[in-house]
Amino acid sequence: MSNKKLTVLVLILALLVLTVAGTQFVNLGRADPIPALYTKLTIENPQNTTYNVNTVTLNFSVESLSFYQWRHFSYSLDGKELKLIDNLTVDSEEFIPINPGIYRELLRGNCVLSNLSEGLHNVTVYLIRDASTADIHYGEAFPLANAQFKIDTTPPNVSILSLENKTYYSPVIEIDFTVTESASQVTYSLDGKENVTISENTLLTGLANGDHNVTVYAMDKAGNAASQTIYFTIAEPFPTVPVAVASMVIVAVACVGILLYLRKNRH
Known about the structure:
This protein is an alpha+beta fold. About 20% of the residues lie in helices and about 45% in strands. It has two domains: about 40-150, Immunoglobulin-like (Sandwich); about 160-235, Immunoglobulins (Immunoglobulin-like). The strands form five sheets. A five-stranded mixed beta sheet has the order 2-9-8-4-5, with no helix packed on it. Strands 11-18-17-14-15 form a five-stranded mixed beta sheet, with no helix packed on it. The relative contact order is 0.12. Residues about 25-30 have low confidence and may be disordered.
């Protein structure tokens, strides 16, 4: 084979190699890229509300696409020391065999927050990276989510000011009351009947003669409830007009008697 033919053959082979290599680079460029990695933690409980108990459960879920399998989480209450969350459940996990490998996970965790004091609280959940043991002091803590909530276990104080345990001579009685804190609902019940919602002082009318009781209920925004009951009696009004007439008759009779007595003594 002549040198000229050999040179042409080499050039053709080189062009073929470059063409194949170029096709492979194009295919690589068109391949799907590595998906974006993330770790998302959602606190489902406690919520941003007021609880009327001093024990609340912390529940959270984790969705992750990462180079690592996350198995260590902790929480901090009101900025205090981190505490490991032991109760962790893996709902699903998948290994994606690309280089490097990626883990897709769905996790759930929970723990109990107990002996909570009255007032506002803040809880933050942390991911512990590179934790080789259950000791949270190994590895770096990264906050993922936090939640605020309030504890209120103190019921309001209800006072009925206008009623006493005594007898009244009117079928109309006013309920005058006070509540020590802002109430979400105030109701009253007369003689154990259905509750009636009120927002201010109100009148009880058409009260029958006899014994009665009225209870005022108040509930605050956290659901704490309180009440006060007063027992009283309704009686017939004192008969002022008939008594006045009878008194006048008695006076008249007395006067006539005195006049007769004086006449008799004159004779």
